[in-house]
Design brief:
The complex is a heterodimer of chains A (220) and B (351). With 220 residues, chain A is mostly helical. Helices cover 79% and strands 0% of the residues of chain A. Chain A has one domain: MetI-like (MetI-like fold, Orthogonal Bundle). The relative contact order of chain A is 0.15. With 351 residues, chain B is of the alpha/beta class. Classes of the chains: A mainly alpha (220), B alpha/beta (351).
Chain lengths: 220, 351
């Protein structure tokens, strides 16, 4: 241990790995669920490709309820659920559950917006060609919304990194936790500086990659 | 020319038939009737235009024809099949028998021109290679082969519409529906699109039904026209007949956008005695020495107020507004002479 900081390089890299692990898994699961939720929201809304009032109302309510809870509260409120799913209520695995529960409806809303951005005339044209609802979704809506979906996932990833800093509450670890338990609680200015700078760099890189990909896919 | 307003229809060769079709939309504000008791028949191989101002119901009409809307009353028959009676699967099959082109083109921005054209075939389960090769043929037909690898955003409006047309004909549908297909285009591009549609009609015998608010499109492209107002067909006939002798006020106002017939108020105020007649002349009638005959043989005074000639497809249509004066028996003789030599004579109000 050096004389100007309490953390070691190894420790920093390990916690960085934990952050990527939590964010990666939650993003993967959240994207799948979010894509399903967003699609269902668009498809079942009045005037959608397969209107269904019941599904639409239930989904909207669930999404709104989850989204109205601040993450720190969601994290502790669903501890029994977390324990049921992963068998423990502490550690990175335990943090992934609330991260996924938080991000899935968020991605769902973002996906919904992306899909709704596709001009209704495109869907009309698809219907006039005799496309099935599945074909409309896969061959018309998804490709046209691709760029916007990539941007949505970029936003969601950054949101997850943000939320993962609170994982320390359930002993999840990660560099956000490092900043709080060393930088803040033990007055380690260096640890704070390093974590803050790395977070800034990570978010910049993710945003740049997302924006670049979206531009390439859009071809406008 | 045929002087009757009857619709030519070879029995049994009607492609599109509307029987007592009504369509109303229910909303919180109440019920809006978009179509009311519409009967129409389109014979195979015809180019059929529907004209009306916005809100006249023409868009609803074309959306009924390819199953985007279902009628609330009556029957919509495509090749004898009632679209309203089909389940969704049957409806999708029927929709594949019509191609549709849109005012705003509705091309996918994220895929190439070639893949846009191939899309209907891909929906039918045709493999990518075969779909692309048939799409390439359709693109060649519309003269856009060199753009097949481009994305729609790289094309002009006219080129986009030609891609839309290639996409609409790639399945070789018997019926092509055009929803204000030229309304977003400038006049010279419109002329190209009209020429292309006519070529499709001639070469593939594709029946074309188009809706528009532009009388120019009707004049240059259509064989037959239905004029709509407030959800009803107020006039229907061969294009030439409607141009020469419009029966309804709506039709007359559309015709006057092509053939101006109004006499300026200042001139009207200075007109002396006598009557003002509007003569419509078609083809050979325009080359007759009408005026000199009226003056020299019939013995009336004639003053020409307005004269012009318009080409309506292969026909020449002339309009002549004259002021005629003379004793009552001479006027009657003049009227009788004209009735025999020109297609239509009507007195124009001087007020």
């Amino acid at each position: 241990m050096s004389d100007f900081t309490l953390i070691t390089g190894d420790q920093f890299l390990r916690e960085l790995g934990v952050t990527f692990y939590m964010v990666g898994v939650a993003l993967f699961l959240g994207s799948i669920l979010g894509l399903l939720i967003g699609t269902a929201l668009v498809v079942t809304r009045p005037g959608g490709i397969l209107p269904n009032r019941v599904v639409s109302v239930v989904l909207t309510t669930v999404v709104n309820v989850i989204r109205s809870l601040p993450f720190i509260i969601l994290l502790v409120a669903i501890v029994p659920f977390t324990r049921f799913v992963v068998g423990t209520s502490i550690g990175p695995a335990a943090a992934i559950v609330p991260l996924t529960v938080m991000i899935a409806p968020y991605i769902g809303r973002l996906v919904e917006n992306s899909l709704l951005e596709v001009p209704s005339g495109i869907v009309e044209a698809a219907r006039s060609m005799g496309a099935t609802p599945w074909q409309i979704f896969v061959r018309f809506l998804l490709p046209e919304a691709r760029g916007s979906l990539i941007l949505a996932l970029t936003t969601a990833t950054i949101g997850l990194i943000d939320a993962s800093a609170m994982a320390g509450v359930v002993g999840g670890g990660g560099i956000g936790d490092l900043a709080i338990s060393y930088g803040y609680q033990r007055f380690d200015g260096f640890a704070m500086l390093v974590t803050v700078l790395s977070l800034i760099v990570i978010v910049q890189v993710i945003q740049a990659v997302g924006t670049g990909l979206a531009r390439r896919v859009r071809r406008r | 020319m045929s002087s009757s307003n009857d619709v030519p229809s070879e029995a049994g060769d009607t492609v599109v038939r509307l029987e007592g079709v009504g369509k109303s939309f229910r909303s919180r504000a109440g019920t809006t009737t978009a179509l009311d008791g519409v009967d129409l028949e389109v014979a195979r191989g015809r180019i059929f235009g529907v004209i009306g101002h916005s809100g006249a119901g023409k868009s609803t009409l074309i959306r009924l024809l390819n199953g985007l809307e279902r009628p609330t009353e009556g029957r919509v028959l495509l090749d004898g099949v009632d679209l309203a009676a089909l389940d969704t699967r049957g409806l999708r099959a029927a929709q594949k028998r019509t191609g549709m082109i849109f005012q705003q083109f509705q091309l996918l921005e994220t895929i190439t021109v070639l893949d846009n054209v191939a899309m209907p075939l891909r929906l039918d389960g045709v493999g990518r290679a075969e779909a692309r090769s048939r799409a390439a043929e359709a693109l060649d037909f519309v003269g856009l082969s060199e753009k097949s690898g481009n994305h729609p955003a790289e094309l002009s409006g006219g080129q986009k519409q030609r891609v839309g047309i290639a996409r609409a004909i790639v399945r070789n549908p018997p019926v092509l529906l055009c929803d204000e297909a030229t309304s977003a285009l400038d006049p010279s591009t419109t002329a190209q699109i009209i020429a292309l549609l006519r070529r499709i009609n001639r070469e593939y015998r594709t029946t074309i039904v188009l809706v528009t608010h532009e009388m120019d499109v009707i004049k240059d492209l259509c064989d037959e026209v239905a004029v709509m107002a407030a959800g009803r067909v107020v006039e229907h006939g061969d294009v030439l007949d409607v141009f020469v002798r419009p029966q309804s006020e709506v039709a007359a106002s559309f015709v006057s956008t092509i053939i101006p017939v109004d006499i300026p108020a200042a001139v009207r105020a200075q007109l002396g005695t006598g009557e003002v007649w509007r003569l419509s002349l078609v083809d050979d009638e325009v080359t007759q020495p009408l005026i000199s005959t009226l003056i020299a043989r019939i013995g009336v005074e004639v003053n020409i107020l307005h004269a012009d000639m318009t080409q309506i497809q292969e026909h020449t249509v002339g309009q002549l507004v004259i002021q005629v004066d003379g004793p009552p028996d001479r006027l009657a003789a003049a009227r009788a002479y004209l009735a025999e030599h020109v297609v239509d004579v009507r007195e124009v109000g001087r007020a």
